[in-house]
Structures are given as C-alpha cells and as structure tokens.
Amino acid sequence: MAKLLWIIGGIVTLALLAGCAALIASQNVEQPPYTSVALDGDFELRDYPTLTVAEVTTQGSRGEAVRSGFRPLAGYIFAKERAGEKIAMTAPVTQTADADGTWVVRFIMPSGYTLETLPRPAGSTVRLETLPPRRMAAVKFSGVADDALIAQQEARLVAWMGSRELAPTDTPTYAYYNDPFTPGFLRRNEVMVPVGR
Predict the structure, then answer these.
(1) Rounded distance, CA 157 to CA 45, Å?
(2) pTM of the model
C-alpha cells in the first residue's frame, strides 16, 4: 500500500511540475497589447490597437474547426510551407464564427511585423490581414474549453454586458492561450465580444 501511495504521489508531482513548466512557457509568449478600460473580477473591457494576423477559414464544429485551422497556421509560422524565417508563436489562438457558418481561426503576429514585412504564405489557405482597433468585452476562465464551458462563460459575459448596457457589434471570439498539454486548471481561455465605444 505504501508503495502504491509513493507511485501516486510521484505521478501527481510530475503532473504538477509539467503543468508549471507549461504555464511558465506560456507566460513567455507575446500577447497582443490592449488598454484596460474597466476591470470587474473575471470581466474586462479592453481597447485593442490595430493587429496584424495570419488567418484561415475552416468548417465543422467549433473543436474541429480550431484544430484544422491550427495546422496550416502552424505550418506558416514555422516555415514548413514557405521559404524564409520562422515566426515566433504568440498567444492567444482565436476563433470567430463567420456569417456563413464557417470559422475564422487566427494567429496574432508578433508586434515587430507588419503586412509588408511578413513572409508571404506559399498557398491560398493562409491569409495575412489587419484587424482595425476594437473595443472588446471579455471574460477570462480556466478549464478545458469544451462547448458547454464556452456556452456557460459566453452567457455570463452577455449578462455582464447587459448590466453595463454594452451592445455587441459582432459575433463572439474565443481565445485559447495554452497548448493542449497544459492541465485544465492552469489554462487561460476567454470569450470576447466586440462592443461600441
């Protein structure tokens, strides 16, 4: 029995160490700058500047779409499908539903790049775009971001927006800050909704 407890303790310790290592690694990844307009616990109102992104359009369920969108974007930044230098990974990976039922999955490009200085994608799957400045209402939460958890947090955000008389101007964006190996309780996810200024 004591041996079994030592084994379980060792496994738990290794899992915690791996989670801490993943958390430290994710904190060293560049994230887009923003100005916090209001902070209320898990909720925040943010002003984002112009952002340069690489994006793809995908289909399927939310989970399928983000996975299939990640692959060509990773191929682009790691120079697997084009010539030239690698581009540093940033966080978060974002996903937004389009009007026709498809999804747009985006990597935000590091701040040192512009549309003019980014390497050109090799094919037509990955597009380089500029997002205009936006005000976003956001809710931050941990856990494995499955459909049920995202729906729950989106409902919380909509209720918070209603209490502040903030009207959405477009569909929500889902933001994922960690790799899939990070334990759920250490993950950072967000639902963000553009609102008027």
Answers:
(1) 11
(2) 0.86
